[in-house]
Design a protein that fits this description.
By secondary structure, this protein is mainly α. The protein has one domain. Helix content is about 85%, strand content about 0%. The chain contains six helices and no strands. Helix 1 packs across helix 6 and helix 4 packs antiparallel against helix 5. It is globular. About 25% of the residues are buried.
Length: about 120
Amino acid sequence: MDLVKKAEEIGKNLSNTNQLRKFHGHLTKIWSKYAYNRRKYSQNQQAFKEDILNEVHFMKIFLAYQAGRGVSEDIKKLRKVLEPLIDEIKTPEDFEKFKKFYDAVLAYHKFYSETARNSRSVRK
């Protein structure tokens, strides 16, 4: 299955936006730091590892904690997909691909949740 289809499948089936928002907040902070220093990281792999990669790998701990709390099955599904992708991040290019995939998940989630909301309001 290609990543676009996978992102759509995940986004379509997520219902708990609170957990998604928390993960998104953490990832956005890391991405902002990366984007600000992109040139530095493309030239210095060690700086990328120390500044960005360590933070990205910490996101696995966040996902495990949220999944362990048992608040939502959605976060468990998200963890199952995102953890292996996080493990594959080794370079700035890998991080950019991961961010695009995550953004696609978020976009599909927004699309399908709005579609469902509009469908419910039409029926009333």
